[in-house]
Specification:
heterodimer; A: 76% helix; B: mainly alpha; two-stranded antiparallel sheet; 2 strands; globular
């Protein structure tokens, strides 16, 4: 009994199951206001997800009880969070600052942060990718990209 | 029955379709050669870019990528013992020892020729089997279509292996996402939370890119894979026409492995890696020199590569006729068909024969092109792709994902939604929740709901209408068999093993 209860509840599968139960339960509120025939399938799916998550939770806790190692989510959490953060920041900056500026910064920044340190290579790759996007999408297909909400307002 | 097949041929031979196929095969080989990237991911990223294209051109690109990627996975498998795709694992067994002996080039040539043969056999199977099956499914009414959807979901959950609870949660999630938006019958808003962007529902493309493209990109950035530099002297390549005669002795393996691949492709839930493993084991068992296997036997490469390419087109047999994909890539391809307004299922063959039969021809031509494009010179060039820095590759894919998703409706809301699905997909991927049931749930969910409600209307609310005819009952029986079959089989084998152990 040397293991405390908190790590048992912090196992990734347990947390996922708990999260699914909470989210499914939350979605059941708007389901209640739908017509019965419209609510039939989504209601069944939400209840199904909640019940199955309870089973998953029990199964994972039994595994924890028998001393089985929790399934690992990542070998390098900082790199994973960093990658997500950079991707979300890139989307936000595209939305608020504009596509081309954000892309010209994001390509070398992501590659540099994650280990590709050749400056000529980064510069060349950025010019090729941004240039190709401009030529193919903007020039060739008349596709417009976000120009940045900050400048619009 | 096959007249439509011949009628579609001139359409496929158009210059744009052909160029699309060539680009698709090259792109597929490139993607397949990159460890960590897969055909599923490549097609997911590509699908949004095909919006403005003619359906046949778009499908040609997808068929090319699928064929190319299945071979491309052999390049790092042979040269670095790192399978580019999961289906290329068995190729490493003999491919890598061949490369160590300076026969990497020959191993890749065996791989490309075998991949092409497997692909051609698979395309013929699709052409021969899909049309008659579609005739049968044309007889289905709403209750049968509903059961087909349930059967499809059950197959992919229970035959995929792994934890069925996780499979069921994935499917429930997919079906739930499919009902977001305006109710198709009553028009009531479901889970839109006053967001106009959600009124039309969640686009399959957003889900596909989020689930299948974002997690591999995170993986690319998470683990900076260090690979040996690939050099020409590791390949030892001769022109392919000189090496061909050395391969003719594999003809039995080519036939056997093609049959394995086709059969496994048709089975929902099974995939290229299973086909390659089974085919490799069977070929080794049938070999007169099984001891040489694992030490650089080219026939091992032939067995694995023929089978993993033979499941490409055949996985589309249940996908095109019933809307049930045989593999994850086939599920993504169904998404590609949907965005071009083509609903997979029996009506597809009646409403869009040129496109559906043209797609089959494209699979055949894509497989033939593999030999030309993946021949000796190209193989050298493609092998050098392995030297590309992964972080740079990751950053370029991120940009392509954003462009693709933004281009669908020209709004950032879709990009944020994709990132949300990507985060969910990453967690699901790491915790081994299967992703194909989510895609299939999204494709079949609203389809099943519509047909269920239609059937209930026909039956005036009487639920027994769902069991009123023989076809429905057969489909229910098949669904029950798919759900309980694997556990019954496991128990039977466990009991037999126990009895054998007791006898000993």
């Amino acid at each position: 009994m040397s293991k405390s209860h908190s790590p048992r509840l912090l196992r990734p599968e347990t947390l996922t199951a708990l999260g699914t139960i909470v989210v499914a339960a939350a979605f059941l509120f708007p389901t209640a206001s739908l017509k019965p025939i419209s609510a039939l399938l989504p209601g069944a799916m939400l209840i199904g997800m909640a019940l199955l998550s309870v089973l998953l939770l029990i199964s994972d806790q039994r595994k924890a009880g028998s001393g089985e190692e929790a399934q690992s989510m990542t070998s390098a959490p900082k790199r994973v969070f960093g990658a997500f953060l950079l991707i979300v920041s890139y989307a936000l900056s595209t939305d608020f600052i504009g596509f081309y500026v954000s892309t010209a910064v994001a390509i070398p920044l992501v590659a540099y942060v994650f280990g590709y340190r050749s400056l000529p290579g980064l510069a060349l790759a950025t010019v090729i990718v941004v240039g190709a996007i401009y030529l193919i999408f903007d020039f060739g297909m008349a596709q417009t990209f976000p120009s940045g909400r900050l400048w619009q307002s | 029955m096959y007249a439509d097949l011949l009628d579609a041929l001139p359409h496929v031979l158009g210059i744009y379709n052909f160029v699309a196929l060539v680009i698709g095969v090259i792109a597929g080989i490139v993607v397949g050669a990159m460890p960590g990237l897969s055909a599923t991911m490549a097609i997911s990223v590509l699908v949004p870019f095909t919006f403005g294209l003619e359906p046949l051109v778009a499908l040609g690109l997808m068929a090319g990528i699928y064929n190319g990627a299945m071979y491309g996975g052999a390049i790092p498998a042979v040269l670095l013992r790192i399978p580019g795709t999961p289906a290329a694992v068995a190729t490493t067994f003999d491919g890598y020892p061949m490369a160590q002996k300076g026969e990497g080039g020959f191993a890749l040539q065996v791989a490309v020729v075998s991949s092409a043969i497997g692909g051609i056999a698979s395309a013929f199977a699709l052409m021969l089997l899909a049309p008659p099956l579609s005739k049968v499914t044309l007889l289905f009414g709403p209750s049968e279509v509903f059961w087909v959807a349930v059967f499809g979901l059950a197959s992919i959950i229970f035959l995929l292996g792994g934890n069925p609870i996780k499979g069921l949660i994935s499917a429930c999630f997919g079906v739930f996402v499919s009902v977001v938006g305006a109710d198709p019958i009553s028009g009531a808003d479901r889970y839109t939370f006053d967001q106009l962007e959600l009124l039309d529902g969640v686009s399959i493309v957003i889900l596909l890119v989020g689930l299948y493209a974002l997690p591999p990109v995170i993986d690319l950035l998470e683990v900076p894979l260090k690979t040996d530099q690939v050099t020409d002297n590791k390949l030892g390549t001769e022109p392919i026409w000189r090496t061909l005669p050395r391969m003719f002795r594999f003809w039995k393996t080519w036939i056997r492995s093609s049959l394995f691949g086709i059969w496994i492709g048709i089975l929902p839930g099974a995939g290229g890696s299973m086909a390659a493993f089974m085919s490799y084991n069977e070929a080794r068992r049938a070999s007169q020199t099984p001891d040489t296997w694992g030490n650089g036997e080219p026939e091992g490469v032939a067995a694995s590569e023929t089978a993993n390419n033979a499941d490409t087109a055949s996985a589309l047999i249940p996908a095109l006729t019933l809307g049930i994909p045989g593999t994850a890539v086939a599920a993504v391809m169904l998404g590609g068909l949907l965005i071009h307004g083509l609903q997979p299922g029996p009506m597809l063959f009646r409403e869009s024969p040129t496109i559906v039969f043209g797609f089959m021809w494209q699979f055949l031509f894509g497989a033939i092109l593999l030999i030309l494009l993946g021949g000796s010179l190209a193989t050298n060039s493609f092998a050098k792709l392995l030297n590309l820095p992964r972080p740079l590759l990751g950053s370029v894919i991120i940009v392509l994902m954003l462009i693709g998703v933004y281009s669908i409706n020209g709004r950032m809301f879709d990009v944020y939604l994709m990132l949300g699905f990507g985060a969910i997909g990453y967690v699901m991927d790491k915790l081994k929740f299967p992703l194909p049931p989510v895609v299939l749930g999204l494709i079949l969910g609203s389809y099943a709901e519509e047909n269920l409600r239609l059937a209930l209307r026909i039956g005036r609310g009487d639920w027994t209408i769902l069991f009123a005819n023989t076809t429905s009952l057969v489909l229910v029986a098949l669904t029950v068999a798919v759900i309980f079959g694997p556990s019954v089989k496991r128990r039977f084998f466990a009991k037999r093993d126990d009895e054998e152990t007791a006898k000993k």
